[in-house]
Amino acid sequence: VLIAIGRDACTRNIGLQTIGVKINEKNGKVPVNDEEQTNVPYVYAIGDILDGKLELTPVAIQAGRLLAQRLYGGSSRKCDYINVPTTVFTPLEYGCCGYPEERAIEEYGKQNLEVYHTLFWPLEWTVPGRDNNTCYAKIICNKQDNNRVIGLHVLGPNAGEVTQGFAAAIKCGLTKELLDETIGIHPTCAEVFTTMGITKSSGQDITQKGC
Q1: How many Å apart are CA 147 and CA 166, to the nearest integer?
Q2: Is position 186 annotated as part of the catalytic site?
Q3: Choosing from 123, 186, 197, 199, which is the catalytic residue?
Q4: Which of 20, 42, 50, 157 measures 20 to 30 Å from 181, CA to CA?
Q5: How confident is the model at residue 108, as a pLDDT?
Q6: 111 or 8: which carries more pLDDT confidence?
Q7: Which residues form the FAD/NAD(P)-binding domain (predicted)?
Q8: Which residues contact 186 (CB under 8 A, 6 or more apart)?
Q9: Measured between alpha carbons, how far is residue 96 from residues 12, 70, 179, 188 in Å?
Q10: What is the structure's pLDDT at 25?
Q11: Mean pLDDT in the chain?
Q12: What is the pLDDT of residues 166-183, one digit of tens each?
């Protein structure tokens, strides 16, 4: 039995209070601004210790690299904590990049979003007749910004591989129109993002009868 209980931020006994660095008393994490700067201007924090940020090693590496470049290389680039491709490696993988739907609604307003979604059936599942309409894909688009994709979610085989590829496109400003113009590779799971036509608001049936 594996129990995942998260991480502790062991910050209470390292002397932060001596120099006046504030921490979140509930979890010991350190609040920072968008440049990883604490309330004490000459103290920075990166990685899992950040309050409200993702606990992912590649995020910490990227944030540290960009911080060093800003401090010593004359750069102004900041770490993007929103468009981070992430996967949960459960037996049926879940991958996402960008905003979850609930957070997108808070940030942009429901009236400014269009959500496209569908169930799908991977080809390798059709021969054994396995679990039709178990896999799911969704994109969240900002109608006020040329239907730019601000959230992508997929539940299915190899979701991590699929998400990693689309993450680069999202960083480049991927829109629904560009997805529609992209020719899909058949039969792959990833091609489902090139054929989405049903919006969540329409209430139409999204079940699939074939791969």
Answers
A1: 16
A2: yes
A3: 186
A4: 157
A5: 97
A6: 111
A7: 1-64
A8: none
A9: 33, 28, 16, 18
A10: 93
A11: 94
A12: 999 999 999 999 999 999
- Report how far apart, in Å, the C-alpha atoms of 208 and of each of 121, 133, 136, 149 are: 7, 6, 11, 23
Side-chain-side CA neighbours of 171 within 13 Å: the count stands at 12
Q: Yes or no: say if 155 and 92 are a contact pair by the CB < 8 Å rule.
A: yes
Q: Which domains does the chain have, with CATH numbers?
A: 16-73 (3.50.50.60), 85-202 (3.30.390.30)
DSSP annotation of 183:
P
Neighbours of 53 (CB within 10 A): 22
The H or E element containing residue 161 is: helix 159-171
Identify the pLDDT of residue 123. 86
Tens-digit pLDDT profile for residues 50-70: 999 999 999 999 999 999 999
Positive/negative CA dihedral, 30, 32, 36, 40: negative
CA 146, chain centre distance (Å): 20
Q: Which two tokens stand for residue 50?
A: 């950040």
Assess contact for 9 and 30: CB atoms under 8 A.
yes
pTM of the model: 0.89
Of the candidates 48, 18, 8, which has an alpha carbon nearest to the alpha carbon of residue 32? 48
Strand order in the sheet with 113-120: 86-88, 94-98, 148-155, 135-142, 113-120
Which amino acid, one-letter code, is at 4? A
Under the banding of pLDDT at 50, 70 and 90, the label for residue 211 is: low
Q: What is the DSSP letter of 163?
A: H
What is the spatial distance between Cα 173 and Cα 87, in angstroms, rounded to a whole number? 21
